[in-house]
Amino acid sequence: MKKFLYTLIFTVLLGFLFTGVALAQDNTPPTDDEVNAVAHKLYCPVCESTPLDVCPTEACRDWRELIRTMLAEGKTEKEIIQHFEAQYGARVLAEPPKEGFYWLIYLLPPAVILAGAVILFRSLKEWTKPKAAAPVSSGARSESSSSEKDDYVARLEAELKKQK
Amino acid sequence: MFAEFGYGILVVSFLVAIYSVFAAVYGATNKSAAMVESARRSMLLVFPLLSLSAAALIYLLVNNHFEVAFVYEVTSRSMPTYLKVTAWWGGQAGSLMFWSWLLAAFTSAVTIRKWDRDIEFLPWVIVVNAITLIFFLGMVVFYENPFTRFWLVGGNVEPHMFAPLNATLFAAPDGNGLNPLLRHPGMVIHPPMLYLGFVSYVIPYSFAMAALITGRTDDRWIRLTRRWSLWAWLFLSFGLVLGGRWAYDVLGWGGYWGWDPVEIAAFMPWLTGTAFLHSVMIQEKRGLFKHWNMILVILTYSLVVFGTFLTRSGVLSSVHAFANSPIGPFFMAFVSLTLVVSIALVIWRWPILRGETEMKSMLSREALFLLNNLLFMSVLVICFWGVIFPLVSELFTGQKVTVGPPFYERATAPIFAALMFLMGVAPLSAWGHSTVQTLGRAMWKSAVAALIITAILFVTYTQNIIALIGFFLIALVLLVTLQEFWRAARARQRAQGENFLTSLSRLMGRNRRRYGGYIIHISMMLMAIGILGIEIFQKETQGSLAQGEQLNIGGYTVEYRELASWDDQGKGVNFTRAVVDVYEDGIYLGELTPRIDYYFDSQQNMTIPGNRSTFRDDLYILLVDWQPVSSMGATFKIFVNPLVNWLWIGSLLFLIGIIFAAWPDKDPAEEPVRAARSVRQTNAAD
User: Fold this and answer.
1) How many beta carbons lie within 10 A of that of residue B542, not counting itself?
2) Looking at domain B539-645, does it have CATH number 2.60.40?
3) Complex-level ipTM beyond the 0.85 threshold
4) Would you state the pLDDT for residue B591?
């Protein structure tokens, strides 16, 4: 008896679950916004550099309809994107997948920039190393600044005087 | 007749340019002033010659000479005359010729200046400009000839310049017509502006090369080309801004910048150009970083040619790439060759390009300028790699990939934030020497005020952390910059006893570059407000409406009223125009009319948004689709773009700032401040 009850409850729950899914599918056809949200993450396989959600061509319209159908079938965004990638290659993704050769696009710029920064700071340190006590022959622009006074104003006033 | 004439003149100008190179080199190496003068005059001749050739082409364009292939491709009978004229730069061949014509004009302008004390530069300036011109003219003469005509040969229509055997001229009854996207007023002036910017950067480069070749490596070349670089920067910036506005108005994706490879192609020389603009100041004031300035101007030149190559060779097919052509390899060769030769010259002259003083402090203005350069270069590295990576990938894996906005946005956003911070700090630092204390003293008030503003925004406007960081930096830069105006004007007021406004205007008049620069900084911050607004807070929705139905978005209600579709045979366009009523919180704001124009000749659509623009936000409505039958349902895509207007307001102020800085004047402050050292340097170079 107990067993029967459990089975009954289980069946009913399962039934609810399925009808629930079915209801969700029937009642809410994907909106344009849901379609666009997925399409925005994909790039038109024909007209390069154009996101699928804004591409005006007939082909892209069909692809958006495909997304709508897939959404209606209950496919997730990830599945749809995977489908497009499998079908048309990595170019439909907004940026290359993080794998293999494609890592280069993500790693090279930071490496170069870092190298640049290191070189710059090394040279800066080199240049600003306090040389022997003798003052370096400075540019005509560097004004002597008394420490107690706002040296900005001093500098400015000196410049103004020069212009008079 | 006109085609042969135009082409003939083109060939003659090509030959004259070649002659001027030889004459200039001979004149310079044999100290023959007469030969240099001959080179100068032949260079002066190229511009009127090319103008004649251009006049012939324009005649053909305006008078529907569809036997000329270029005319057939870019015009049609229904186009108004002004568009037929501007179609000159609407296609590959014409735009390369346009490039050459501009370069000839600029070179002429440079060669007729008074040369007295810089006469040793003259031949080499001519050589560099002429070689660039020869390259572009060569493309036009041999590969992309705008005067090529159609011939009927044994039943086939073939394009040739001159009549093949037994051929008759063939003229189509009507032309293809210009790509409708290019018929927008913004697009009519956007390419010439970009080209003006591109071409005017050739001039500073030619002076830099002349300085390297002659060994006169003081900063004379920088002083001579200061205005050129500013104007070049003005045109390039203006071209970029116009491009953004054009995209916003006609491309129908609700944005202004899509990180498209061709946009980046124009953005890259702007980055090095901007870095150059800052770093030349260090050389002028402190005599430092001469190598670096040379490298920057060389990079800018290479990127200008590279940018033209990207847009013109069709190597990256993108929304802008309207053409595919055989000129790619030649462009590549030219870019590589000029880059290698220029860098070789820098290395050759390395020893005499040493700095004249020492750096004294990591926080001095020159050090901060250097940091600014590093940041601009970082953005350049990201852009360059992003643009060429699809090609690299195709080469090595056979797979072409897309490098889209997410990549660029993620990579460049922190760098732009750092640049903004620097914009807030650098104006307060002193040449030669600054410390944390002096900087802190100068900026703490602004920093506190910026924090308060950010706190207010946190409470009233947004909790988005990125937006708040952005707004804090914007507030900081604006306050610091305004405080700079205030302090300097007050100081002058005290010293001179003038009233505040007189002080301010005289101060600015006397230091055009500095205060023009500050105006540009302020305008950049206004633009940043717009960019933050649209990037972070943009909302969009799409829906199909029957008449009388509504869509809600961001407090707005959009109600579809009616739709009409009609042909305008005179213009060769079918217009489909929807009328929607816009309400905000129940209050009627007015109607908007998004439409789609279909051009019969080129069979292309153009999507014109209905846009309601305020300081707070833009309501931007696109007509996506409609049912032609009686039901008259229509699909709309609606964007709310907060704060985007500040982008355009900032752009306007930006132009004002550059013009203010670049405006010619007799400024006593222009005289070299490091005169003594310059003389020493010149003597040493002699």
Assistant:
1) 21
2) no
3) no
4) 94
